[in-house]
Structures are given as C-alpha cells and as structure tokens.
Protein: aldehyde dehydrogenase (NAD(+))
Amino acid sequence: MAPKIDIKTYPGNIINNKFVPTPSTRHSIDPATAEPLYEVPIARKEDLDVAVKHAREAFKTWSKTTHEERAKLMLAFADAIEENRADLEKLQTMEQGKPIGLANTEVTMALQWLRTFATMEVKDEVLQDDDERTIYQTFPPLGVCGGIVPWNWPILLGLGKVGPALMTGNTFIMKPSPYTPYCDLKLGEIGMSIFPPGVFQVLSGDDSLGPWMTEHPDIDMITFTGSIPTGKRVAASCAKTLKRYVLELGGNDAAIVCDDVEIEKCLPKIATLAFLNSGQICMLAKRIYVHEKIYDQFRDAMVEFTKNNIKTGGGFEPDVVVGPVQNSMQFELVKDMYSQIEKCGWKVALEGKVREGSKGYYIEPAIIDNPPEDSRIVVEEPFGPIVPLLKWSDDEDVVDRANSLRTGLGASVWSKDLVRAEKMARNLSAGSVWVNSHFDVAPNVPFGGHKESGIGMEWGIEGFKHFTNTRSLWVWKKIF
Ligand code: NAD
Structure:
C-alpha cells in the first residue's frame, strides 16, 4: 500500500529519502485565481551539495543492480503514483492551470511511460566475435544526473527523465520549475518509499538552483527541458566541467494541410492541437500552412470549430480546453503578442480576447489570417492560444517555408495522397514528423529537436543511451 500524499504540506526537499527543510520558503501562484499556493523549500547551495554527495554514494550500489531489480522498483513507483493520481491531477490543475481532463491525460501518459521504461534495456552489443577476441560495445551509466524541468508538463516531462536515468543505472536529482514545484515534490515523496536512499531526490529552489546544478563538478550529466535561450545558458555552463547534456527546447511547428484533405475530418484535430494547454506545449501546430484551394473554407471552419468547441476558463470548469496561462511572466509575453495584432495590422479570423480585470491569467484563442511570413506571430514561438494560418500553393515551396526557421521540433503534413505527403515529410527538418497527425509521442520512440530545438534525444533506446557512456570492451582470448 503506497503512502497517501497530502497536497497541502511540503515539509522539505527530498534528500536521501528524508524531508530536509530549508531556512526560507516560497510559494507559487494558482494561475486560475492569482492566489498563493502552499509554501515550498528554497534549496541552498549546501543542500544541493549534500544531495549530490548522497547521489554519488548511492550510485555505487544502484549502478550494480540488475535490470530486473530496477524494473521492479520502477513498476512499484508507477503503482504508487497511480494510487495517488486523483490528488496529483487536482494539484496539477491548481499549480499549472491545465484543465483537469488534461491533467488526467498527463498522469495516464506518465504511468504508461514509466511502465514502458521498465521493459526497456540498453543491452551490450557484440561487434566482433572470433577465435582470437570478442569486442563488445557496452553502456555503463554516467553517474549522478540532474534533471531540470519546465512548467508546462511537470509530471510527464519530469518522470520522462527520471525513468530512463534510473533504468540505465544512474542516480537522479530533479529540479522542478519554480512556477510548478508541487507535483514534482510529491513525486519525490512517493519515491522515498520505493527507491534506496540517494537514488531519486527532488530539490525545489529559486532561480539560483539551476545554474548551481549545471556548474556542479560532481554532477555528470544534465537533462534539460525548457526554452532555447535558457538551453544555450545550460550548454555554456555544462561546458565548464565538460558535463554531458541533453537539451529539449522550444519549437515552432508547421502543419502543412494539402488541398485534398477532408476538412471536417482533419480540422478538429488540428484546431485542438493549436490550442491545447493554452498553446503552452513545445510541439503544437504553431504555423498552419493551408493550401490556397481550400484556405478560405478551412479558415472559416476553424473559426467555427474554435468558437464552439475551444472553451476558455478555469481548469475545474466543465469542457474547458484553454485554461489560464501558467504565470504572470508568460501572461505578459502572450499579451504582448496579442498587442501586435493592432500594431502590425494583422487580419484576424478570430479575435482572441485578453480577459483583463479577471483574477486569473485568461486569454481566449486568436486565429491570425495569412500574416506576412516574417511577422512575429510566424517566426516566434508564442506559447499562448494564438495561431497564424498561412496560404501556400507549391509543395516544395511550402516545405522550404516550414524549414526556414532555426527551430525544428515537430512538423506535419496532412493529405490523402500518402506518397506525396511522405515525400514532403521526409524533407521536413524536425525531430518528429507526422503524416495525418501531429504531437504523437510514445515512451519507446525517440523525441527531440533539430537545429535550435535541441541536442540529443529523450525516450526510446536512443534516449536511454544518452544516460550512458559508450565503452568498447576488447577481450582477447589469449595473450599473443
Ligand atoms: P525555461 O527555460 O524558462 O525554464 C526551464 C527550467 O530551467 C526551469 O526549471 C527553470 O527554473 C530552469 N532554469 C532557468 N534558468 C536556468 C539556468 N540559467 N540554468 C539552469 N536552469 C535554469 O522554460 P519554461 O518557460 O519553463 O518552459 C517553456 C519553454 O520550454 C518553451 O520554449 C517550450 O517550447 C519549451 N519546452 C520544450 C519541450 C521539449 O521537450 N522540447 C517541452 C516542453 C517545453
């Protein structure tokens, strides 16, 4: 029977399977009401040092455990999370703002991820085996890994790092975003009753904690998900100690809609995947290129669909798709993008509204009608519920336009003609490309970005390998 969490209390950081309080605490804000949530620790440098020391000590034994032992604990961890899922989902909506149904989806995905990770193993490869020698490629763990998590999907993106790190034999210290520390601290608390001390620790802190982790000489690897500018700072900081790092960064995905689609079939998915989580997902349809032959019809249908189906409101209200924007900093950024509509004279197909005067950070969806290709709404990731529709007429040209940015996280092509769609898809420079879909992800499929959208991959066996070194092992069968 897993311990029952209490979402109102945060007695300390999770260090060596104990709650370790800190002299000062902080809280974040419920974005639906702008009211303060619960007090959480602010880790000091010495707290991080202690956690790293325990992680390094724990690594000595954890790295020697078998796949079966790790898998058993990973499955027990998933079961314990599942027993607490109703509380975690509620807490996720309170801290992140996402609708409760989406919080439920996030936990369902996280459980599927952990349970799949438990079945995955990076096995030694035999590169050569003859009378004289056997040459293996082996994959020992790196050591102590640090995970830096963003505020948009704290449970899935946090556990998406914990699982592979632990399954490959590393110990792990997780740092949630200061905007969303609550669920991640509770995951650490649940882990206390499952993993040996020092194997999985969670530290909540302020803006100093991330840089302390990336600079720390006894952390061997950083797995980071967040924005491109921060990713560059993480890479520069890791360079000082030549730490390994994986960066999962921002995107500005193109969805290319061909002239032969049945609009009523593809539109609900495309429109939903433009506004889900209030546009605060790295891999949504953020530039929708619609063939000129169906542009007007598609635009009008998207406006109708959005008006009727994409309701804005608090995460606990029924049928809401667009919850509040997660924090005041992001609210100001998205408001600034909305202010460009008038300033730049963009045509609006659906005029989104900033709900000024309401207590939470609410912004209703906006659809921009064929703005210039170099406008901010096309070249910047808005990370809010605002999306441009763009006209195109030539297959090669639209692929060039989709590829023209420095980002390359995801991209999609929608068409009945699979040969044409696959040809376009194979020319799209992005880490995930879909035909007739967008945003599909799975724990056994590598996920990451091209160009400035990231370095390295998460998930899949390739993602697992990023938590390992390669060791070439030459075994001569006798001394010649
Ligand atoms: P962010 O870069 O502001 O913060 C991410 C994390 O980094 C937080 O935990 C933050 O505290 C920490 N951090 C901030 N400065 C740091 C520093 N100098 N050193 C180390 N850590 C530091 O990102 P965010 O606003 O939380 O997330 C939104 C961004 O993340 C968007 O651009 C989105 O596209 C991207 N994102 C990418 C993926 C992906 O997998 N590719 C997934 C989700 C979000």
